[in-house]
């Protein structure tokens, strides 16, 4: 079996299982080849009971890991001297109620009522790679990006896992999950789906060979793979694409792209499963609550604890390669999409603007895309 396939067969099921464990509120062990390991739980799905279980299993006091973005949002700046990693910050939970700990991670509640004592900042080092990947696993699970974390004594993970029937996942596997999933995408189905706006449309479905996120390609009309092809990378937006939400411009852009491709004789629209700029629908709705209180779309993501844009375009490049289109005219206002495709080896001949007038509700959103994300007007 080639190395990539062999790795994917190990990495994808292992990380998928760990995601399922976190989503159901269970603890998992994250480990490294050098013997370091930690017991973790997702903050969002933890409860007083599961927190106590974590204490009992490890015989230690867990800490709470937040992203630096979330820590900054609750008033702890990255310059804080006791902050021990660049991307993830640890707090001691000692003496804090489970509700208070949950509020620190949950942006929809007001954290101002919680008094962080000086000794809530950890003075001991948290192993950075374990901590970073613990939080990454909560992101991959589309939960709030925060984890309860207990550092385990080196070499104790196997025994603990056996005694308590805990899943063990490698930190390296978590960090390579997204790219491994992208490179192991395979075509699983291809069917003609005549659309109102483009009767000759084929929907091609891709899935990583060993499970994981599925993405779709819409082949519209007769695109010529020997000419630079009109391509749209469209990130999933349940509210805009399906419900016709006026908060964003996604519905207009989706239908506008299909119409334009039909008019120009053909094109490929990739429908990418990365809802809410990669934070998932539940977290996007949380970000909307914060926008209703005055934050813009970029700051709202940060208040939830994410980067303003968490998307990756390796799956898009991989699908284009497999479909045979590696020279593209990219329908977008977002320079980041072009840069990312170029980094993945796709030649972007041209960025074709894709603007729609404001609908009366999304004016500030469109303005923010230009001012905060550098979208071309
Ligand atoms: N987190 C978050 N995501 C949003 C918000 N509004 C829209 N989205 C998501 O943003 C994505 C829309 O991205 P696209 O239209 O593909 O890309 P873009 O960055 O706007 O760039 P263009 O190619 O110029 O359209 C979808 O995944 C939406 O769900 C918001 O307020 N918060
Ligand atoms: Zn949208």
UniProtKB/TrEMBL annotation:
Q: Report the catalytic activity.
A: GTP + 4 H2O = 2,5-diamino-6-hydroxy-4-(5-phosphoribosylamino)-pyrimidine + formate + 2 phosphate + 3 H(+)
A Pfam family: GTP_cyclohydro2
Q: Which residues bind Zn(2+)?
A: 237, 248, 250
Domain GTP cyclohydrolase II per the UniProt entry, residue ranges: 187-353
Q: What is its EC number?
A: 3.5.4.25
Superkingdom in the source lineage: Bacteria
Q: Kindly indicate whether the keyword Translocase belongs to this entry.
A: no
Q: Which InterPro entries does the UniProt record give? A: DHBP_synth_RibB-like_a/b_dom, GTP_cyclohydro_II, RibA, RibA-like_sf
One Gene Ontology cellular component annotation? cytosol
Needed cofactors: Zn(2+)
Q: Which UniProt keywords apply?
A: GTP-binding, Hydrolase, Metal-binding, Nucleotide-binding, Riboflavin biosynthesis, Zinc
Tell me the protein's name: GTP cyclohydrolase-2
Q: Write down the species.
A: Kiloniella litopenaei
Corresponding gene? ribA
């Amino acid at each position: 079996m080639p190395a990539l396939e062999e790795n994917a067969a190990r990495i994808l099921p292992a990380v998928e299982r760990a995601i399922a464990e976190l989503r159901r509120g269970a603890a998992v062990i994250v480990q490294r080849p050098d013997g370091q390991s930690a017991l973790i739980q997702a903050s969002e799905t933890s409860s007083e009971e599961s927190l106590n279980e974590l204490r009992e299993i490890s015989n230690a006091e867990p800490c709470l890991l937040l992203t630096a973005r979330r820590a900054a949002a609750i008033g702890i700046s990255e310059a804080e001297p006791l902050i021990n990693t660049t991307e993830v910050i640890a707090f001691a939970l000692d003496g804090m109620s489970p509700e208070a700990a949950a509020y620190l991670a949950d942006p929809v509640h007001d954290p101002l009522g919680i008094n962080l004592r000086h000794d809530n900042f950890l003075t001991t080092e948290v192993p950075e790679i374990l901590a970073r990947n613990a939080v990454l696993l909560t992101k991959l699970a589309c939960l709030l990006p925060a984890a309860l974390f207990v550092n385990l004594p080196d070499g104790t993970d196997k025994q603990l896992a056996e005694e308590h029937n805990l899943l063990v996942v490698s930190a390296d596997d978590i960090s390579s999950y997204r790219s491994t999933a992208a490179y192991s995408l395979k075509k699983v189905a291809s069917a003609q789906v005549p659309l109102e706006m483009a009767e000759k449309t084929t929907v091609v479905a891709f899935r990583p060979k060993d499970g994981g996120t599925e993405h779709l390609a819409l082949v519209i009309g007769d695109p010529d793979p020997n000419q630079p092809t009109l391509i749209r990378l469209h990130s999933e937006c349940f509210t805009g694409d399906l419900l016709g939400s006026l908060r964003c411009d996604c519905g207009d852009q989706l239908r506008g792209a299909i119409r334009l491709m039909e008019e120009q004789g053909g094109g490929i629209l990739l429908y990418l499963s990365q809802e809410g700029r990669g934070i998932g629908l539940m977290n996007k709705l949380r970000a909307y609550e914060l926008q209703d209180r005055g934050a813009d779309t970029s700051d709202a993501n940060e208040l939830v604890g994410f980067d303003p844009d968490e998307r990756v375009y390796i799956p898009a490049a991989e699908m284009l390669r497999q479909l045979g289109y590696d020279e593209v005219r990219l329908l977008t206002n977002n320079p980041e999409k072009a840069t990312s495709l170029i980094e993945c080896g796709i030649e972007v001949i041209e960025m074709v603007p894709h603007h729609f007038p404001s609908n009366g509700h999304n004016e500030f959103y469109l303005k923010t895309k230009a001012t905060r994300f550098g979208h071309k007007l």
